[in-house]
Every structure is written in C-alpha cells, then in structure tokens.
Specification:
Layout (H helix, E strand, L loop, with lengths): L3 H7 L10 H4 L9 H7 L2 H8 L7 H15 L10 H15 L4 E6 L5 H15 L7 E6 L2 H16 L1 H6 L17 E3 L5 E6 L4 H7 L5 E5 L4 H4 L2 H16 L6 E6 L7 H5 L6 E6 L2 E2 L2 E2 L6 H10 L3 H5 L7 E4 L2 E4 L8 E3 L5 E3 L11 E6 L2 E6 L3 E6 L2 E6 L8 E5 L4 E2 L1
Parallel strand pairs: 1-6, 1-7, 2-4, 2-5, 5-6
Antiparallel strand pairs: 3-4, 8-9, 10-11, 12-13, 14-15, 16-17, 16-18, 18-19
Helix pairs in contact: 6-7, 7-8
Amino acid sequence: MATPTVRRLLGKTANPYLMTKAKIKRTEPSSPSLREILQKGNRQELRALFSFTHADSEAAVLLKFNLWARHFFPQYFKAGDAPFHKDIDTFNYRVYRGMLSSFVDIVFRGGAKTTRTKLLMAFVISNDLEHSRKYLKVLTEDGSNSKQIVTDVYNMLISERVRAYYPEIFEKTTEKREETMSSFTTATGVKMRAGTVGTDQRGQLQEDARPDFIWFDDFETRKTLRSAVETKAIFDNMEEARTGLSKDGGSVYTCNYLSERGNVHRLVQPLPGREVLIVPIRFKGQPLWDAYTMAEINRIEAAADDFAGEYLCVKPDTLVLTKWGWKTIALLRVGDKVVTHLNREQKILRIMQSNANDLLDITVNGKVVTITKNHPVLVVRGSTKDWVPAGQLTVKDFVCVIPHGKLKV
C-alpha cells in the first residue's frame, strides 16, 4: 500500500508531477511532510516512501519514481521535465507492470528517453517489493551499447548513496564498474543482461529462462538501413525475442531514427496493447523541451547529417502518395491512408508538423522529385541493386525507383 503521506499528497491532484511546495506543506502537522522525509528521513522512512507493490496505484508509483530519481540522481534533472517525459515514464511503467505489451518510444535524439528508462530500471529493481520482473534484457544493434546500458544501471544501484539505503541488492560488491559488463544478478534475484538484435534469439531462449521485460534500444541506424537483408534480419530477431517473452512479458523500443523503409516504421503500426509516442525536437517552430532553445536547435540542424531522420522533422510540403494521388503532409489528417514503399496502404496514426529544411531535389532523366534525405531510393551500384537513403546518392548512381512510384526509370 502507498504510505499515508503519499496517499494524502496525491488526493485529487490531477498531475502529481506538478505538485508545488505549497501543496506539499498541506500534510497534517502530526505526520512528517514529504519534504521532511526526503531531507531528514532515516533509511526506514525513505524506503517506505519509495517502495511499492501491486496494491499501489499507478499514480502513486510514478510519483515515487520521480521522487526517488531526483533524490538519488539529481544530476539528471538540471533541466526541467518536458510534457512528454510523463508519457515516457507512464508507458514504461505500464509495460513493466504488464498493462501494456509494448511501448514504441520514438523521441528525438537528446530527448532523455534512454536516461529515464535506465532510471526506471534502477528504481524498480530497488523498490519493487515483489520483484515482479525477474529477468530484464537489453538488445541493441551494437553490442557495446547494450553492455553500456547494463553497466550504467549496475553503477546506479552500486552508487554509494543508493547502496547505503539498499545494501541487500548487492551484498558483497561495493565498487563501480569502469569497463562494460554484459550482465549482473542482484542478491534479490533480479537479472539484467545485454545482447544484440543481430543475434538469432531462438538459441538464446533455449539456453536461458525466458525474459519478462525486453528493452530494444538503438536497434536501427543509417548503416543498417543500407541493407534490406540486414533490416529484415533485425526485425525477425526482435520478433523472435518479443514472442519468446515469458507470459505477460513486455517490451520497450527506444529509437530516434524514423525511415520509411526501416523497422521503426513497421513498429508504429497499431497493435492491441501497444502505445506509440512520436516527439520531434520542435513543433510549429517551438522547442518541445525547454532544455533546448531555437538557436541551439538551429545549430543542431546545421551540423546534423540527417536532421529529419534523427530529430523527426520534415517540411509540411513533403509529398506523400495516396491512392488518390500525391498530397502534401500538411493536407493529410489522422485516419487518412497513405501508400508505403512496399505499395501497401497504411492508416496515418499521428501527424507532426515542423519547419525543418531537409529536402533534396533529385533529377533523373530530366524529371525532378523533392524528397527528404532519409527517403529510400532503389539504385544500382555496379552489380548490386539496393535501397539507399536519398542523402547518400551520387551522380554515378543508376536510379531504378523513388517510391512510391512517383519516378520509375
């Protein structure tokens, strides 16, 4: 159950993340205030404040998480939260709790999605009294990235301040790891392991107990998108991992590279029990997180190799094919159907407008097509035919198709 102090503070507050100091001071004089517990509470009081079970409401646990993260790791909160951070926390927790089967977290590079997910992992390992998830797995395209995530979570748990309040997590280990590690198991029975999406997951499932929480991070890059074979292999391996989850297991996908021919594009398709969050770095000319100014965003755009792909921004006059012909994104609405590069109709789930200037004019046989840098183009290079991002085309390439049928030569 939630502690009396937390339950009183929640009350009828619509958004517990936005509680003010004045609201915190409304606790009864007979009991310590939330601020007093955080500042002067002993180990027993603080652990009671942060711990949770299935009996606690979602709002209570998310409040506990935000208090815990700020109490132990204030260095990650130098900038205030963005509105979409609440969505990240909520959907991550719902997957952990089994209320969602998957969460596709497509937030621009630098949007803190990875940091908040790592913090939640450390929080639940420390404070879930039931340890309802025993086997957490992290899969990335580059194995060093997944090992770094596992190491980061381990170092959070072994940090001097956390260890003073949770000595039972690692009974003997006391030192942080400088080199990366592929796995760890706590004394409380929770395992976290790193792996790659380039590895066939069927053998993995035979060798180990089935994971009950999988985090896919950085599973797609411009490099992997150059090969349709590699892109498909990654998706197949992710599906093997997802379908190999334990009963009621869930998966989180954190990514920031959105391409029409990639796996992220496939993951935004609606499925029962799936939530999709898409957040560009700016919307209608304004930053979506005040940690960035427009001047900083303009500098990022000038320096980025693929601003549209990594920061999820395209111009509103970008052309998209529908069965009725070509239309600009600005004219489309949620629910409209568009034709993908595989010549399949898909319904629009969300539309984000931006003033990004990331288009290229491709001229072939006197015909001009304007597309984004990460738009797939089928070309022949030597004896090889493959899809490549438009931004990588050269005058030596032989263009076969620029989807979705606008230009065929």
